């Protein structure tokens, strides 16, 4: 009997070939241990609310009122809601064709697209056109739509940083394209070397792959670096020379914890470069309410902005966006994120207090973590300049690598599993993000509660230093007594 | 200079070949006229809230509280919210890992998947497994995911009813598959003829296309029919013989306006048939909060249930769903839709009153519309048994067809444009849904306000009868005086 449409053997090979380590061995083991009653610290996903971060109050008030507009007809509404939240809810409802229950059109609510454009203009000092802004269910839906639009088959390559957030490799495989990695330089604070980029393109070309787009993640995930203006310039020149679309994942633009290298958008750098470059390089920039310091991951709000994209292509993007429309609630969050309460508004002080508390604490936690990792034997860790991750390099002794092999594990998986068993700290092995051969990392988020952070790092150091002692070339390790 | 990645010439051909008439000529002209100040009745999209339908209160209260859980710490919360809405909000929040701002996992919130399973069990009288239910951003995201999983290339065909809701043709093109149409029989109340189905499969096969799945829309969009138990049995037997996955679009299951042919799910009929059939046919059933009588389109809540799908395939479905997660708010709406207030609950009476008012009015409007169309010269219209559309056949006289040709228009587009200009009624020409050659239709929704419905139908009849008089074979038409 022949196979059926949803038998595994007959599925779309691109679906099967897609790698997405969200349910990797580490995560599954963490869930098992949790079910057995062990206390697990889930630092594996950038999901702040799941680690106890409270939502910012004002946007939640506005969205609650938008969802239940009949509350605003109740004379008692002021008992529970401030006047500026009520005014803002009316403002957003007036943009809809029938409240949050009505479909928004393919690009999202025009009023909110205008607010996003104003935010971008203010941020970059250059005009932004609401018609070139598309509101999406989180940044990831937008990334997937753009990659689907670009990729025609295996001959199309997408340049993706390594280490990288696995969305890009997953979406490239899913749409049948080829991943073309470029390595970030750990010793150069995760910067990139343009020579390497050219080489990646040539190597791909030799294999019959035409690179058509390049992804940058700024600030970096999992690497935490902020790209300098000069790096961004080099990248844009490179894209111009090689005729590549630049996909700028800028979802961590509000998560920056140092002043030396503030966030600069790819669009601003491109516009600063002036014509002909500023009119030539095709750029798609992504942002989201999931990241930033709001961490509203479950709301699925995001946008992309199109720069130098021809109108005929925009019609195609609109058409595909129209097939499956974006949720309205996420759009409201996005509107408030780009247009927060202003000085003088009733909710301003509270909003500022909440925002500063979260951002300040994230900065402190980032520093505790970097310092903690660097105090560990055989561990080196760049600073988390931005985003919400720490990505230390774990210099595993040869004996540990051998022990991992004997256990049938990738060495960093071996280390992370032992860390999990010993301490309950659930991390993601660096191999899930891609890394150079023989170099090992892990990723943790900086999201555990601030008051727990010193304890977590002490527990991690104790485990690590014992692990290193066990596997370093001492008599014990040679005799293999402690395995 | 070579083309860039987002130049139109170099885009993914599947994207370009995808047809989605959402911004068709009719809609654009309606917007133009609206901008010029003409009153337009937008009956072109099934978007109830945009036509003034008020949201049902209870789910909106629950979602508002889930979004602003701090309200429940306020002693005054009872001033604005009933106790059962508060209890329900706590119930759903307890299912999340950190409220609506935390990511839900790939399948959606397990607690809500359990409520969906209970709903299905109660509806069909057969067990349903929460692990086989996936919560999605509206039904359309689920349809797209399943089609992407099935389709490997142009050699894979999807059997789609004609006339059909264009999601299916669009998604099939987008993922590079081949659309294999089967015609619904207007004279048999839009029923289907199994002989035709076999023929469609053979014809496809002769062209090198293997049909791998079949779509049914029950109740029908745009055709409004409810499939009988015997039709569903025939369809399931056909899918079994031909080794097809059945995709059951059942998003209108709560929109049924007659008692002769109630909604029956494909899953119930399959289970009723018993083994071996009930263990063999691969079925994916879709439902949504956008349709039903709630009409919460903008919230993007939906689910699909997998029946007889192998575990390895389910792992693949989970993996792909994990790349881009579902919004939480839509999941809460779905939970309440499948588990509404019960007799004895504080909100029960109000919920029932609102529900009955909407459903009762939709039924009345459906009848007014069918009757109105059938009173028009050269128009015949099947009853809207379910869903939210009317799909009359417009028997255009040969002179009207010729006039359309001279104007460079498809004949039904010609008629609908003239209708729009004369009356402000914005419809969708039948050609947008596919139809047999030389047969013309239009689709309207039954969603205009009940009090306006008689006026709309009178205005439509006046236009239609004058149009027919103009183009029928009278001296005037022969002389072409009135064109």
Automatic annotation (TrEMBL), chains A, B:
Assembly and oligomerization: Homodimer.
CDD domains recorded: AAT_like
Gene Ontology biological-process entries: L-alanine catabolic process; photorespiration
Gene3D superfamilies reported in the protein's UniProt record: 1.10.287.1970, Aspartate Aminotransferase, domain 1 (3.90.1150.10), Type I PLP-dependent aspartate aminotransferase-like (Major domain) (3.40.640.10)
Catalytic activity: glycine + 2-oxoglutarate = glyoxylate + L-glutamate; glyoxylate + L-alanine = glycine + pyruvate
Annotated metabolic or biological route of this protein: Photosynthesis; C4 acid pathway; Amino-acid degradation; L-alanine degradation via transaminase pathway; pyruvate from L-alanine: step 1/1
Residue ranges annotated for the Aminotransferase class I/classII large domain, each copy included: 91-448
Molecular function per GO: alanine-glyoxylate transaminase activity; glycine:2-oxoglutarate aminotransferase activity; L-alanine:2-oxoglutarate aminotransferase activity; pyridoxal phosphate binding
SUPFAM superfamilies found in the cross-reference section: PLP-dependent transferases
Name the UniProt record assigns to this protein: Aminotransferase class I/classII large domain-containing protein
Organism domain of life: Eukaryota
Alphabetical UniProt keywords: Aminotransferase, Pyridoxal phosphate, Transferase
GO (cellular component) term, any one: peroxisome
InterPro entries documented for this protein: ALAT1/2-like, Aminotransferase_I/II_large, PyrdxlP-dep_Trfase, PyrdxlP-dep_Trfase_major, PyrdxlP-dep_Trfase_small
Co-factor requirement: pyridoxal 5'-phosphate
Family: Belongs to the class-I pyridoxal-phosphate-dependent aminotransferase family. Alanine aminotransferase subfamily.
Protein species of origin: Daucus carota subsp. sativus
Pfam families per UniProt: Aminotran_1_2
Keyword Nucleotide-binding: no
């Amino acid at each position: 009997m022949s196979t059926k449409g949803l038998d595994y053997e007959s599925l779309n090979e691109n679906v099967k070939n897609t790698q997405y380590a969200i349910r990797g061995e580490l995560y599954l083991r963490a869930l098992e241990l949790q079910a057995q009653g062990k206390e697990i610290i889930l630092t594996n996903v950038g999901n702040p609310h799941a680690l106890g971060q409270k939502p910012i109050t004002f946007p939640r008030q506005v969205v609650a009122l938008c969802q239940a507009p009949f509350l605003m007809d109740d004379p008692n509404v002021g008992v529970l809601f401030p006047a500026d939240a009520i005014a803002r809810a009316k403002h957003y409802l007036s943009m809809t064709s029938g409240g949050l229950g009505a479909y928004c059109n393919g690009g999202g609510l025009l009023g909110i697209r205008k607010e996003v454009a104003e935010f971008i203009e203010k941020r970059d000092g250059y005009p932004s056109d609401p018609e070139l802004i598309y509101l999406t269910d989180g940044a990831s839906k937008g990334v997937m739509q753009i990659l689907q639009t670009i990729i025609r088959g295996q001959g199309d390559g997408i340049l993706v940083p390594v280490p990288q957030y696995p969305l890009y490799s997953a979406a490239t495989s899913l749409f049948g394209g080829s991943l073309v990695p470029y390595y970030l330089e750990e010793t150069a604070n995760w910067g990139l070397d343009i020579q390497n980029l050219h080489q990646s393109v040539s190597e791909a070309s030799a294999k019959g792959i035409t690179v058509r787009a390049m992804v940058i993640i700024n600030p970096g995930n999992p690497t935490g670096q902020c790209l300098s203006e000069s790096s961004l310039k080099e990248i844009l020149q490179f894209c111009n020379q090689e005729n590549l679309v630049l996909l700028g994942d800028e979802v961590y633009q509000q998560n920056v914890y140092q002043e030396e290298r503030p966030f600069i958008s790819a669009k601003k750098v491109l516009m600063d470069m002036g014509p002909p470059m500023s009119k030539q390089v095709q750029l798609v920039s992504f942002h989201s309410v999931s990241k930033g310091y709001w961490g509203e991951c479950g709301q699925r709000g995001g946008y992309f902005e199109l720069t130098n994209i021809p109108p005929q292509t925009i019609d195609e993007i609109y058409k595909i966006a129209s097939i499956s429309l974006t949720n309205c609630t996420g759009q409201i969050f996005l509107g408030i994120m780009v247009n927060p309460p202003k000085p003088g508004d009733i909710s301003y002080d509270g909003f500022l207090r909440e925002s500063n508390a979260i951002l300040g604490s994230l900065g402190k936690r980032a520093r505790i973590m970097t310092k903690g990792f660097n105090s560990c034997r055989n561990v080196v860790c760049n600073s988390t300049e931005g985003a919400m991750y720490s990505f230390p390099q774990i210099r595993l002794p040869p004996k540990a690598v051998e022990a991992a092999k004997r256990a049938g594990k990738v060495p960093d998986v071996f280390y992370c599993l032992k860390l999990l068993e010993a301490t309950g700290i659930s991390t993601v092995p660096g191999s899930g993000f891609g890394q150079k051969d023989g170099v090992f990392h892990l990723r943790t988020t900086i999201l555990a509660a601030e008051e727990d952070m010193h304890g977590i790092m002490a527990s991690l150091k104790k485990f690590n230093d014992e692990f290193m002692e066990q596997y370093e070339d001492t008599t014990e390790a040679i005799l293999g007594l402690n395995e």
